[in-house]
Design a protein that fits this description.
The protein has helices spanning about 15-30, 45-55, 70-80, 90-105, 135-145, 160-165, 170-175, 200-210, 225-235, 250-255, 275-280, 295, 310-325, 325-340, 345-360; strands spanning about 5-10, 35-40, 55-60, 85-90, 110, 130, 150-155, 185-190, 215-220, 245, 260-265, 285-290, 305. The two termini are about 30 Å apart. A seven-stranded parallel beta sheet has the order 3-2-1-4-5-6-7, with helices on both faces. A six-stranded parallel beta sheet has the order 10-9-8-11-12-13, sandwiched between helices. Helices cover about 45% and strands about 15% of the residues. The chain is elongated. The longest helix is centred in the last third of the chain and has 17 residues, at about 345-360. Helix 11 (about 275-280) crosses helix 14 (about 325-340). It has two domains: about 5-155 and about 345-360, Glycogen Phosphorylase B (Rossmann fold); about 160-340, Glycogen Phosphorylase B (Rossmann fold, 3-Layer(aba) Sandwich). The protein is of the alpha/beta class. The relative contact order is 0.12.
Length: about 375
């Protein structure tokens, strides 16, 4: 099959999980012989990182969904690049891409990575296909009136090898940096500090498990608007020496290698890439029983599920794992096996299959797609 030209679009100015995924996918698709170009605002976090990564990127103002200067700029770009397909990621760029695609006859594939309420099903009329990041997201779209026939589950991917190959020297160095030598259990969580991520529940859980495990350490990586509130909570509870706030970090594989348990308390989660990364690293996972997380974690088989917003349940799950080395090893092995279902190599081929499908107006073969179980 001939190589495709795909225009990835993103209107968000942030650089979070969705934008990281977009950039990683652009490189994976390029490595497989296709031409990828990115359109995004010039002041966005994605723009500079795409430049640094050597991915062709174009400045397009995307202030609003129907803003004429944005539509004109994107339309000019589409006419010049002549992409086979446009791949959109957020609200504004999906509207703009849909209109530009309709004018030029370029099919649109839209990504949906959110579990926030669907504002309008009309936003999903123009895309030929909608790629939902989980069955939970697909169900929400269908409840909002989006036709199920155009929605396909396409799970986010990870480079599993990156998380499995951290050497013992790197692990020892990180534990030394964290002042974690001789501490047990070391509980780790990485993610942006937002209300739905519920890092405060981990602080409260830590307080509950300290009587039995006084050397326990909670390590939190990430930044965001709730960071200071969570830091203040730890300070108010006298846990300054028991909670480490690392800020934004790029060395997540090394940090995971230093952890005994990974806890993910989010109460709204469309998928849950971070727990998959922990599984790939062989770290036993505790996650909330919500959203796409239940499609990743099977309770007592490859991880432990707890009710959302329940620090007592989190503490009990940590204590259970800390007491039972056999269970930790069992969940570690099963977690690695589960994480392999989301490896980036297979996911890239599935994504390219969706692109070919809309170009050829054929149904994609999803038999090789990762399954929920």
């Amino acid at each position: 099959m001939r190589g495709l030209t795909i225009l990835f679009t993103e209107s968000s100015r942030n650089f979070g999980g969705q934008e990281r995924r977009l950039l990683a996918e652009s490189r994976l698709v390029t490595e497989r012989g296709h031409r990828v170009e990115i359109a995004c605002p010039g002041r966005s976090g994605l723009f500079g990182r795409a430049l640094s990564a050597g991915v062709p990127v174009h400045r397009v103002p995307m202030r609003a969904s129907l803003w004429p200067p944005a539509l004109a700029a994107l339309l000019r770009l589409v006419i010049r690049l002549k992409p086979d397909v446009i791949y959109s990621h957020s609200g504004h760029d999906s509207w703009l891409s849909g209109i530009a695609g309709a004018i030029t006859g370029t099919p649109l594939v839209r990504c949906r990575d959110l579990l926030t309420p669907v504002r309008s099903k009309t936003a999903y009329i123009l895309p030929r296909r909608v790629l939902a990041c989980s069955e939970a997201v697909k169900a929400q779209l269908m409840e909002a009136g989006v036709p199920g026939g155009k929605i396909f589950v396409y799970y986010p991917h990870i480079d599993t090898a990156r998380f499995a190959r951290v050497d013992e020297a790197s692990r020892a160095a990180v534990r030394l940096e964290l002042n974690a030598v001789g501490r047990f259990p070391v509980v780790f969580c990485a993610g942006e500090f937002r209300p739905e991520k519920r890092q405060e529940d981990l602080v409260r859980a830590l307080e509950l498990l300290l009587p039995e495990f006084p050397s326990a350490l909670l390590v939190l990586a990430g930044s965001g608007r709730r960071l200071e509130a969570v830091r203040s909570l730890a300070r108010d509870k006298g846990l300054e020496g028991k909670v480490r706030f690392l800020g934004g970090r790029e060395d997540i594989p090394a940090l995971l290698s230093a952890a005994d348990i990974y806890a993910f308390p989010s109460d709204i989660e469309p998928f849950g890439k971070a727990p998959v990364e922990a599984m790939a690293a062989g770290v036993p996972v505790i996650a909330s029983q919500t959203g796409g997380l239940v499609e990743i974690v099977e309770d007592k088989k490859n991880g432990l599920l707890v009710p959302p917003r329940d620090p007592d349940a989190i503490a009990a799950a940590i204590v259970r794992l800390a007491r039972d080395e056999t269970l930790r090893k069992s969940l570690s092995a099963a977690g690695r096996e589960r994480a392999a279902c989301f490896d980036s190599r297979a996911a890239a081929e599935q994504l390219i299959g969706h692109f070919y499908a809309v170009v050829k107006r054929k149904k994609v073969d999803v038999r090789a797609a990762p399954t929920a179980r």
